[in-house]
Amino acid sequence: MEGNQTPPPIPEEPRYGGFSRFEIELEFVQSLASPLYLNHLASMKYFENPAFVAYLSYLQYWSLPPYTKYLDYPGPTLRNLELLQQERFRADILSPDVVARLFEEGMKRGAEGPPS
């Protein structure tokens, strides 16, 4: 650069409703820890939309070490995200029995405490 020229400004990350894409994706991926929310998404037929299913696949980057540290409940969040990659699970989550089983499994894991 010559003389008094200043470098071009660094573009600011786009904001959506005041939030960054990272913040929005973090909030959404954490919501996947809830079996009731998964049931709601299924009842609204989101899991029948190929673009939404592709988005769930894209979100698997949250299972990588640089990102897992941001998750409040990494165990159920990542487990459910993995299950959502299966077409059968996306259909089965409509069943109240499957929702109840996920809650029971989560309660058992919570009562056992973290693995040592």
From TrEMBL:
<dbReference type="GO" id="GO:0006355">
    <property type="term" value="P:regulation of DNA-templated transcription"/>
</dbReference>
<keyword id="KW-0804">Transcription</keyword>
<keyword id="KW-0805">Transcription regulation</keyword>
<comment type="function">
    <text>Component of the Mediator complex, a coactivator involved in the regulated transcription of nearly all RNA polymerase II-dependent genes. Mediator functions as a bridge to convey information from gene-specific regulatory proteins to the basal RNA polymerase II transcription machinery. Mediator is recruited to promoters by direct interactions with regulatory proteins and serves as a scaffold for the assembly of a functional preinitiation complex with RNA polymerase II and the general transcription factors.</text>
</comment>
<dbReference type="GO" id="GO:0003712">
    <property type="term" value="F:transcription coregulator activity"/>
</dbReference>
<dbReference type="GO" id="GO:0016592">
    <property type="term" value="C:mediator complex"/>
</dbReference>
<keyword id="KW-0010">Activator</keyword>
<dbReference type="InterPro" id="IPR008831">
    <property type="entry name" value="Mediator_Med31"/>
</dbReference>
<dbReference type="InterPro" id="IPR038089">
    <property type="entry name" value="Med31_sf"/>
</dbReference>
<comment type="similarity">
    <text>Belongs to the Mediator complex subunit 31 family.</text>
</comment>
<dbReference type="Pfam" id="PF05669">
    <property type="entry name" value="Med31"/>
</dbReference>
<protein>
    <recommendedName>
        <fullName>Mediator of RNA polymerase II transcription subunit 31</fullName>
    </recommendedName>
</protein>
<comment type="subunit">
    <text>Component of the Mediator complex.</text>
</comment>
<keyword id="KW-0539">Nucleus</keyword>
